[in-house]
What does this fold into?
Amino acid sequence: MQAFIDSDDFDPGGDMDSEPTPAPPVQPEPFRFNGSGGEYFGIWIVNLLLTLLTLGLYSPWAKVRRLQYFYRNTELAGAPFDYHGKPWSILKGRLVALGLLLIYHFATTYLSVWTAVALGLIALVLPWLLRNAFRFRAHYSSYRGLRFSFRGSLVGAYGVFLGYGALMFFTAYLAAPLFHQRLKRYQHGNAYFGGSAFSFSAGVGRFYRTYLPFMVGFTVLFALAFVPIIGLSASAKAGGKPDPEAVAAAGFGFLAVFMVGALVLGPLFQAAIQNLIWNHTALGPHRFVSRVSGWRLLWITVTNVVLVALTLGLFMPWAAVRVARYRASCTSLQVEGSLDAIVADAGAEVAALGEETAEIFDIDIGL
Amino acid sequence: MLDAVYFDGRRARGHAVRVALDGDRLCVSGDGIERREPLAALRLTARVGRAPRTIAFADGASCELRDHAALEAMLRRTPLGRGWLHRAEADGKIVALAVVAIALVAAATLIWGVPRGAQWIADTMPERMTRVLSEQSLDLLDRHLLHKSTLDPTRAADLTGAAEALRAPDGSQPVYRLEFRSAPDLGPNAFALPDGTVVLLDELVALADDDAQILGVIAHELGHVHHRHGLRLIAQNSAIGVLAAWWFGDVSTVLATAPTVLMQARYSRAFETEADRYAAALMRGNGIAPARLGALLRKLDARRGQGGDDPLDGLLDSHPALLERARALESLPPGGAGRGGAEP
It folds into this structure.
């Protein structure tokens, strides 16, 4: 699985000194994550302390520092990535996101005519914000001194988020793979590194094939979790009030089955979907290769959850580093010729307004 | 002199260069690059861990540097050299201090902050809202758990009269409304709603030896109302839920729900003690010995000991250590003469 990763035999200066010669046409360049849990713990705990002392106002600065740690410790072909997000823009974005969240909360708590108006307003604003989130994240990411950028159109954003988003909603998530494919096609298909374009080639059929076992799995899980509740309502129909203890047990059983199932299926699904997406993403002629093993990721996730619980959360920095390291180690770029040939393209500053909204509504689906 | 990789900001090609300080200028040379820039025109990214740092030029070019010690030594006396944040993060003592500080903040929040905040929310909640909340709760219970009371109407009227005759120390009448219900599934029990309604189950009336015991239970429930325990519990659970989701949310939703359950047991224990204390004061003020409530708690405990037919033991089930509470009530002086005289 990791056979294509050569560990320490590259040298950042090495191939940069020599002029590009007709080298072997395809050179696999692995991603590497060099961070360590102990080191990140210090950054994490100081972030946390400053956030608490400032009653949360420090959190954008904490976020920038966290992302800088993860970006700068991620290397490709001997060079690190970097993150340049501006905390003040993130703070503004968070305030807008908080406003939207409050509107959403009140609109859905006290149902009235205004509920429809508020939800409609959010639906209209959200695609624009999400497009901004993509732009912000890309624009403030860099590699080898060049910025990434996202150039998806606003029309495209409305098509994906309103059109396919609504379709997914009205088909009881049967259209979720279609939505996900359109989302990734929009996101990866409109991304650039310098002046070089990314492309995305996975079709809807592949998304459905990847989703299918998990859709079946989650349906079975749901049915299993419902068994005690169905039995209970049957006995209630047979006569009398249900036994409160049985009600409590059924409720607990439902949660337990569902949560344990989600804990197992979740990482397996993440692995499958990450492989699907990155194996069909390319930067110009250079293709990405992703070989995440679902079982490995499951093991890492379950041990992380156990250790985080046992340490009341103090293990979280190690958990984050373990996942980042494993994911990076499974990803590589098949470089055709050299990355040196990529040149910059003019890019404009974008506001951070979108990014935080995407985070707080948790719509930013994985990778 | 330090080694660095220079990028011109136009192409992804790196140049191996050497970087040196010359007064207030930075010199970059090697691989066809030759630059001398005033330090004031440069930006050095803050250090995070051992990850490479970047010196950014005004025109978009940048230098990546990995030798942190040499870089810091070179820039120590320049405006670029400041970096207290990294020093704090890499300092074992400061990190240990941060852990202790956060543990203290967390403990203070759970033990002190959340209950105080919940108290504030409960105290400022408008009357109208507590009324709606209470009516909806009773409606829900009526539909799923409670049956009509089969108590003799004159007995019910007597009890209502006795309950309404109770007087708080300031002379006010603490009972807002007394409701009778039956719930064989719950067993002997009573509970209070946030608006002051007390619901008395037939099973409890049947279990009690006399009215004094029943009035004791009503007084206990009024204690919950007086201290607004119902609203506080709702507010506390929501607060703990939000905090746990924030703390564990990235890792697992299972972990995020566990603390709510754990803290709830702790909080409800404190509430029972508080309600008992209120009940004792109210009973004594109305000439009933608090020990009468203690006697009823003993009966409940004995009934549970036999493994009675009540699986949940009603809402009293979250009442921990019934005997302990009974003992605390019985240790109090009996109070003024009056209806409590049943106690030998």
